Amino acid sequence: MFVIVRHGNTFTAGETPRRIGARTDLPLTDAGREQARALGAHFARQGWQFGKVLVSPLLRTRQTAQLIEVAQTNAIPAETADFLREIDHGPDENQTDDAIIARIGKPALAAWDENATPPPDWVVDADERIAAWQKLFAATMADNRPTLLVTSNGAARFALLADPSLRAALGAMATLKLPTGGYGVICKASDGALDAPVWGRRP
Question: What backbone torsions phi and psi does residue 19 show, to the nearest 5 degrees?
């Protein structure tokens, strides 16, 4: 089982959110740290003891993972995985959605949110990310202990595109996006196919 977490909040209440990616390494806010603690407590209540922890190199994801692991009975050291690093928004890095829409238009931004089609001039490396998720699914699915992955919104969605069964289930999902402080679960269904019974849940 894979538990895929999006880091906690990086913007304070009342602050205008912006698209921050690989080049903007913000820390968690107080609210973001509380979200991470809530995730840790929630996972502990589920009885999930992680056998592997993979994190993006960015500060916000590392801080989230550290606070989740506080609630683990036997926490294991996190491993850095570059394929979990947030994408690079190119000229739209650190810009508001209004500013981005003014540059590329609503359909281009909607295509990213709905099916992970990269807008013009964004650096996404979709094929490499999908290949990395496929390798992960193939290599560790036999481990009975869940794997925790802490990443960003732009990177997490490629997990759903890395397997035919998961792609087929996309139509029933409201969005590819994970909310800040939210998580998804990918596991094997009874027929052996991969399934995402949870996507976008907050504790």
Answer: -80, 105
Distance CA 84, CA 166 (A): 18
Lowest mean pLDDT among 9-23, 50-64, 115-129, 167-181: 167-181
| Tens-place pLDDT, residues 110-132 | 999 888 999 999 999 999 999 99
Q: Look-up: residue for tokens 């699915």?
A: 141
- Please check whether the domain covering 2-88+123-201 is classified as CATH 3.40.50.1240: yes
